[in-house]
Design a protein that fits this description.
mainly alpha, 3-stranded mixed beta sheet, 8 helices
C-alpha cells in the first residue's frame, strides 16, 4: 500500500521537475529569441562560421522540424538545427547553435566524458531493455526454486536487473558535465568569432543555463525512478539479503 502511494508521489514529483525545467527553457528562448544579435548572424550562419574557424570541414549543418529539437549526430556527421534556430538571428538561436558546435569540438578534441557518453549510449539502451525482464525472471526462479540450494539465483538476476536499470542514471550523470562543457565552449567561440559582443554574452549565458537545467532535471528524475525501481525489487523479494 505504502509503495503505491510513494510511486504516485514519485511520478507527480518527476512530472513537476520536468515541467518546470521545460517551462524555464522555453521561457528563456521566447525572451532571448526576440533579441536580434548585432552581427545579424543566424543560427545556420553561426554554426558554419564556428565549424570553419575551428578547421572542421566534414560536418554539415541541416534543418529539422520542431522547436528546440537541435542536436549533433556524430555518426551521420551533421549538426541539425531546429526551425526555430536555423534561420533566426536572435541571441537565443546563435547560443543554441553554438552549443551544438561545442559538442562537435568535444568529439574533435577527444573530450573524455563525451567519449564515455557515446560508449554508454548503446549499453544504456540494452540495459534499460533487459532490466525488467531480468527482474521478472528472477522472481519466477525465486518462487520456483526457493527450497533448493540454488535459491539465490533469482535474487542475483534481480540485482543484475537493478544494476542495468541504473545505467540510465549513470548516463544522465555523465551527460550533465558534457552539456555544461559544451555551453562553456559555445560562449567562448561566440565572442572569439564576433558572433556576439561581450555585452550580449550574458543573455546567451542565461539561455544556455536554462537549457542546462533540463539536464539537471533529467538526472534528478532518473535517480528518483531508479530508487523507486530498486525499492520495488526489494519489496517483491521481501527485503531479503541472503548470505548463505
Amino acid at each position: 500500500m505504502y509503495y503505491y502511494i510513494i510511486s504516485i508521489g514519485v511520478m507527480l514529483l518527476c512530472a513537476a521537475i520536468g515541467a518546470s525545467a521545460s517551462m524555464k527553457v522555453h521561457r528563456a528562448f521566447n525572451k532571448y529569441g526576440n533579441m536580434p544579435t548585432q552581427s545579424r548572424m543566424t543560427g545556420y550562419d553561426t554554426a558554419r562560421r564556428l565549424l570553419r574557424s575551428n578547421g572542421v570541414n566534414d560536418i554539415s549543418v541541416g534543418k529539422v522540424r520542431g522547436h528546440l529539437s537541435d542536436h549533433y549526430h556524430p555518426t551521420k556527421k551533421v549538426v541539425n538545427l531546429s526551425e526555430s534556430t536555423f534561420g533566426s538571428d536572435s541571441i537565443a538561436a546563435v547560443a543554441v547553435a553554438a552549443h551544438e558546435i561545442g559538442h562537435v569540438m568535444q568529439k574533435k578534441k577527444g573530450y573524455p566524458l563525451y567519449k564515455l557518453r557515446q560508449v554508454l549510449v548503446p549499453i544504456t539502451n540494452i540495459g534499460s531493455a533487459l532490466a525488467m525482464p531480468l527482474v521478472l525472471i528472477g522472481l519466477i526462479l525465486d518462487f520456483a526454486v526457493a527450497s533448493t540450494q540454488n535459491s539465490d539465483m533469482g535474487w542475483y538476476l534481480a540485482l543484475a536487473g537493478v544494476a542495468l536499470y541504473g545505467l540510465s542514471t549513470v548516463f544522465a550523470l555523465v551527460t550533465l558535465p558534457v552539456e555544461f562543457n559544451a555551453s562553456r565552449r559555445a560562449k567562448q567561440m561566440l565572442v572569439a568569432e564576433g558572433v556576439l559582443t561581450k555585452e550580449e554574452l550574458p543573455y546567451a549565458d542565461k539561455m544556455l543555463d536554462a537549457a542546462a537545467n533540463t539536464y539537471v532535471a533529467s538526472l534528478l528524475t532518473s535517480l528518483i525512478y531508479f530508487l523507486r525501481f530498486a525499492l520495488w525489487v526489494f519489496i517483491m523479494f521481501g527485503g531479503r539479503r541472503r548470505d548463505d
